[in-house]
Amino acid sequence: MSWKFYEPPKLFFGKDALIENGELMRNLGKRAVITTGKSSSVNGSLNDLKKVLNSLGIDYEVYNRVGENPSFDMLRDARKIFENERIDFIIGLGGGSPMDFAKALGVLLANPEIDVSDIYDTEKYDGMTPVVAVPTTSGTGSEVTQYSVITNDEGHKGGFGTEFSFPTLSFADPKYTITMPERLTMSTGIDALCHAVEGFVSKRSSPIVRLLAAEAIKIIRDNLEKTMKNPENYDFREKMMYASTLAGIVIAQAGTTVNHAFGYPVTTFKGVRHGQATGMFLVETLKVMGEENEEIVTKVSEFFGGLEGLEEFLKSVGVYEADIEITDEDIRLWSERTSKAKHLRVTYGTFDFETVKRIYEKVREKLQ
Ligand code: NAP
Ligand code: FE
């Protein structure tokens, strides 16, 4: 048995995590940029953050134009504004989109010579302006991962992740997630479930990763639906955030499998949220992974009483409810790309063009 575990962020979890521990940002400097969307001014997180920064005498600017699935263009816009200023650190506040955006902007500010389109190629740069992460969704785990997912000019998602792209500090307070509506709660929870399941079956998995993944899977299995039905229940919100944090630690070590690549075009070209778009492929991709490693797929599906149980679970929370049109041409184009995804390096099973195409067709039939 041999494995590596690398998890550098200093993480504070729980109610008032930011308010009570935010003073640690003092060590990061005097001037910050907050990258965020619009919802942080509604769920209380932006207010809390401003209070902490004001009390520390840290000067900040709020950049609140980060949209879902951040793009090269959004990065160009932010870079232009901040490239000639001295920025000591960046605070990514919101769902995965603003947190991933903070990491990418951090790379661009620390490496002025690179082009935005070089962002996926970590060989081309070194270092990142320090990032603080404050999640307001329970899904991506970006607060504990090195990953940043950014959509390129053609609408394709790509990502980077390297030892220096983890946040330095993370403050995970479940109370910020209480404002998430039912479908967003579902999609983000399913993203976390996919992270845990994919990390469990990844070729890069390890005993410690499977321990954390198993815990995350059980918590999501037992609490996602309850959280969707009781959005204001803090205890359920806390459980879901705990699970997504665990699942984030899992993918930081083991990576995601090709299952994630299947969902990318369904998000960027058809507008289905990331977690839902990823979850709809999980059963079919696991079947193919099981052709090479039956033991690991059996083990992970046992949490649901088998793959049929997992299918039932996904159906019951509404993963297959997507009113979208997928053409044969879409499937052909997506299959070409997904059958070459870099996630394949850590994925069991053979995902050649024909197999990938068949999975897209199968999932198209499942959608209601
Ligand atoms: P998101 O794209 O950050 O946000 C989705 C929506 O939720 C936005 O409309 C946002 O509004 C809203 N929102 C956020 N917090 C809310 C709250 N507390 N209450 C109500 N609404 C809220 O969603 P996400 O699922 O967290 O992140 C998805 C992104 O992360 C994708 O780009 C995905 O590819 C990436 N991802 C990254 C990793 C990683 O390891 N880094 C892993 C998986 C996925 P506003 O925009 O107005 O704030
Ligand atoms: Fe994900």
Brief overview, please?
By secondary structure, the protein is α/β, with parallel strands linked by helices. It has helices at 17-21, 45-56, 72-82, 96-110, 182-201, 207-229, 234-254, 258-268, 274-279, 282-292, 294-301, 307-317, 328-338, 353-366, and strands spanning 10-13, 31-36, 59-63, 89-94, 131-135, 147-151, 157-161, 169-172.
State the end-to-end CA separation: 44 Å
In this structure, how is the largest beta sheet organized?
A: 6 strands, parallel
- What is Rg? 20 Å
- Point out poorly predicted stretches: none
Structural class, from helix and strand content? alpha/beta
Q: What are the bound molecules? A: NADP nicotinamide-adenine-dinucleotide phosphate, fe (iii) ion
Written description of the protein model:
The protein has 368 residues and is α/β, with parallel strands linked by helices. It starts with 9 loop residues before the first strand and ends with a helix. Strand 4 (89-94), helix 4 (96-110) and strand 5 form a beta-alpha-beta unit. The longest helix is centred in the middle third of the chain and has 23 residues, at 207-229. Helices cover 49% and strands 11% of the residues. The radius of gyration is 20 Å and the shape is globular. The protein has a six-stranded parallel β-sheet with strand order 1-8-5-4-2-3, sandwiched between helices. A two-stranded antiparallel sheet has the order 6-7. The structure holds NADP nicotinamide-adenine-dinucleotide phosphate (NAP) and fe (iii) ion. The site of fe (iii) ion has 6 residues, from helix 5 and helix 9.
